[in-house]
Amino acid sequence: MRILKYILSALLCSSLIACDINTKNGDENNNVDLVEIQRYDRTQSLYLTTGDFSALQQMSTDYPVETRTLIEDVLKLGSVSTPDIYSKFLTFYQDSVLQNIISEAESQYANVDDLNKQFSAAFKKLKSWLPDLKIPMVYTQISALDQSVIIGESSVGISLDKYLGKDYPTYAKYYTEEQRNTMSRDYILPDCISFFLLSKFPLPNFATRPQTDRDAHIGKIQWVANKAMDKNFFTTDYVRKVERYMQQHSNVSIAELLKMNDYSDIK
């Protein structure tokens, strides 16, 4: 499966500094959560802190795609078919800093009911605007401070180690104050929704388009993310320009806006 990986600074440029999901049985309009975050991180953490072979077996059987993506594409440790790859994987995380990060992540995210509700509400709105949209599988993992959000063809992976709070001591060694301000629980949903929408509605020829087009495209994605979250989280100039455009063009639906790549009227 082709994995689309999004690193904060690389994808969003200057405009945006920068979970497996199951759908439960039942009507989407009832009180049952539409999204339930799958806790791959718990199985991963058990193996990485104790070397428990049964945890490794569960990672390989229950989460084969997530495990392969983490080892091969995120950490770049080698192919999962390599005989000693899981020993290499275990050794990699034995660093005391990473062991502390694992412990902190499991403590802070012992309960993710709030995130389940937030994701469910946001995807319910997106689904109402985009009926053909397939709700992804959302899961959590520990990525060794690599990537914040992993976007696959049908999944969204959240690296909990990148959302431990701006005051988490280890962050000060590796990140600027501006970056640390985005590394808290409150940013998980906005990051995931915006990255997910970017993967579904990319800007053609992004690298060669004028910066104004890139900024407008990011602003459009952030504006839709705000609407999905029912919160004005993103407040850039281009988000405000998109807001004005939509107020002036009430006949344009959110689906039409997302498919639009001509930004001559949003500048």
Secondary-structure element series: EHEEHHHHHHEEEHHHHHH
The coarse overall form would be: elongated
- Give me the secondary-structure category: alpha+beta
End-to-end gap: 37 Å
Tally the helices: what do you get?
A: 13
Overall radius of gyration: 19 Å
Which ranges are low-confidence, i.e. pLDDT below 50, for 5 or more consecutive residues? 1-31
Helix content: 40-55%
The average pLDDT is 89
* E-strand count: 6
Strand order of the largest sheet: 1-5-6-4
- Percent of sequence in beta strands: 5-15%
> What characterizes the major β-sheet?
4 strands, mixed
Notes on the protein architecture:
With 267 residues, this protein is an alpha+beta fold. Helix content is 50%, strand content 7%. The protein has 13 helices and six strands. The radius of gyration is 19 Å and the shape is elongated.
Can you give me a brief rundown of this structure?
50% of the residues lie in helices and 7% in strands.
Chain-wise SSE layout:
Layout: E1 4-6, H1 8-12, E2 21-22, E3 36-37, H2 40-50, H3 53-62, H4 64-74, H5 85-92, H6 96-108, H7 113-129, E4 137-141, E5 149-151, E6 155-159, H8 171-174, H9 177-180, H10 188-200, H11 211-229, H12 237-248, H13 254-259
Parallel strand pairs: 4-6
Antiparallel strand pairs: 1-5, 2-3, 5-6
Helix pairs in contact: 2-3, 2-6, 3-4, 7-11, 10-11, 11-12
Features:
267 residues
